[in-house]
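Marked as duplicate of an earlier ticket. Keeping the data here for the record.
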Amino acid sequence: MVDHVVGENVNQVVDSGKGVPGNDAPGYELPLLLFGGFRTLIDRLHARLATEGHPDMRPAHGFAMQAVGVRGATASEIGRSLGVSKQAAGKTVDRLLALGYADRADDPTDARRKLVRLTPRGFDALARSAAIFDELRAEWVAALGADRVRDMEGALRQVVPAETAFHLDAPSWLGAP
């Protein structure tokens, strides 16, 4: 966020007050720190998944697999959950099929619809992800203390609207298909 040219601070308006005792951090740092925490967890998750038999798994796949859920979903439903077009969801679904994380089947309630369902490999990836996230959270607890982590989670629950807390459309607002 802060640019430097020949040792001179180019972004002085953004930096004003930074580092002065008693001043809060600049507002732009909060979303960057939250995103940095998210990115750290996701990157570490995928590094571990790669060592546990899922080297091709990407964050977009995890979001899509969550949208598929236990009962399955159509490409349109997946697209709505992810906040992307049916075509973009279809590309992600095609990749999940190619990697063996999902399959397609006729919808038993409507033969015109095709359901995307998770395969045992897909369920394995999600189960491993859940276990790894528990381990990563435990590492944060070890570093920060259980009370601080619970306070941080509680504070985020207070400020994040309930309808968006677990909404899976991160790919759409990050610009990914």
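See parent ticket for discussion. Residues 1-5 have pLDDT under 50 and may be disordered.
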